[in-house]
Write a structure and sequence with these properties.
The chain is α+β, with helices and mostly antiparallel strands and about 350 residues long. The chain has nine helices and 15 strands. It has an eight-stranded mixed sheet, sandwiched between helices. α6 links the parallel β9 and β10 (about 235). The longest helix has 20 residues, at about 30-50.
């Protein structure tokens, strides 16, 4: 008898089989692709738990590159992916010989938050699965330039005190926790739903000086607490890990803000649209939340390049709608400046 059978707990593999029975019209081979991704997540988790392959060697490869290699190998073994676009690669990696099974495209940020691993912060893997367009042939860059609404699967793995895999295949959001003893991913958070509103605010304050006025207005109102226009205290923080903050907002409600920086000469700032923003947007929407650029539904944005960036506001529906309304009011010249003595001289989000 297997460990899963003995405990009566649902494994990821069993869950995917049941999902396939409930939705036989779903994209063929998707469940097996998720199993391949889960195998890579286990390997990345083990790699991080032991501090890397060479112990304390100063010459060891960077963790992000190692995580990318593990994802590539998992796709190689499974044969379900035609090409992979990664935040670690300059161009898509094509899997020659995977036809006819390789009918999907994988987009991933192999190890988001890797720069903070030396401080033992949480890191994560973000992934998105698209169908290979008909007639795409060699699965080049153009095949990946699809709006987020076309994703057939999205999710992230969080490597913290426990390793958690959160994913959606378009039928709700479900969380699985890795049992280090058996190596199984067990369903621990079925049918996750984000509260319609919440008091968690995740935003990196280092670029506060270059935020657009609607973003500044929203954050200042939250920071004002009970005495401000929101009439409530918000838990405002930023750990340096996008995955950790997205997971916290998903569980507790609130908003995750990755705004455009007005002083940034780049194409928009915010998050990498394909690698980060789109998969997180699909997850939040499937959990009952919302995701916006401030002026448009995030999942409707059609990327023009693999590296395109976009402002991203994700979280509880009412919070995202409030942010969108602030952008609309600003664009129409109808917003009134919010003043608070706390922010006249020194911002609470700025170093003194």
């Amino acid at each position: 008898m297997t460990h899963a059978a003995a405990t009566g707990r649902t494994t990821l593999e069993k869950f995917l089989v049941e999902e396939r029975r409930r939705a036989p019209e779903a994209s063929g081979g998707l469940g097996l692709l998720v199993v391949d991704l889960a195998a890579a997540v286990r390997e990345i988790s083990n790699l991080l738990a032991r501090g890397g392959p060479d112990g304390g060697s100063a010459k060891r490869p960077k963790p992000g590159a190692l995580a990318n290699d593990l994802l590539v190998r998992a796709c190689e073994r499974g044969g379900r992916v035609a090409a992979l676009a990664s935040g670690e690669l300059d161009a898509p990696h094509r899997f020659v010989g995977h036809a006819p099974l390789g009918k999907h495209l994988l987009v991933c940020d192999p190890l988001e938050g890797a720069s903070s691993l030396d401080a033992n912060f949480t890191a994560g893997t973000i992934f998105s699965v698209l169908e290979l367009p008909a007639g795409a042939g060699a699965a080049g860059v153009e095949a990946f330039l699809q709006p987020g609404a076309r994703q057939v699967c999205a999710g992230f793995a969080s490597y913290g005190p426990s390793t958690v895999l959160v994913l959606t295949t378009g039928r709700g959001v479900h969380g699985f926790t890795l049992d280090p003893w058996s190596g199984e991913l067990f369903l621990t958070h079925p049918a996750m739903r984000i509260p319609e509103e919440g008091r968690a605010l995740a935003v990196a304050g280092s670029q506060e000086r270059s935020w657009d006025p609607p973003v500044r207005r929203y954050v200042e109102e939250c920071a004002a607490g009970r005495g401000g226009p929101r009439g409530a205290d918000f838990d405002t923080r930023w750990s340096g890990s996008l995955v950790a903050e997205a997971h916290r907002v998903l569980l507790r409600g609130g908003a995750l803000l990755c705004p455009r920086e007005t002083g940034d000469p780049g194409p928009g700032g915010g998050l990498a649209l394909l690698h980060e923003a789109a998969p997180l947007a699909l997850l939040l929407e499937q959990a009952g939340g919302a995701a916006s650029t401030g002026r448009k539904r995030l999942l409707d944005v059609v990327p023009a390049s693999l590296r395109e960036q976009s402002p991203a506001f994700l979280g509880s529906r009412r919070e995202v709608e409030r942010l969108a309304s602030y952008h609309a009011a600003h664009d129409e010249g109808l917003d009134l400046p919010y003043t608070n003595p706390l922010f006249n001289v020194r911002s609470l989000l700025r170093e003194s």
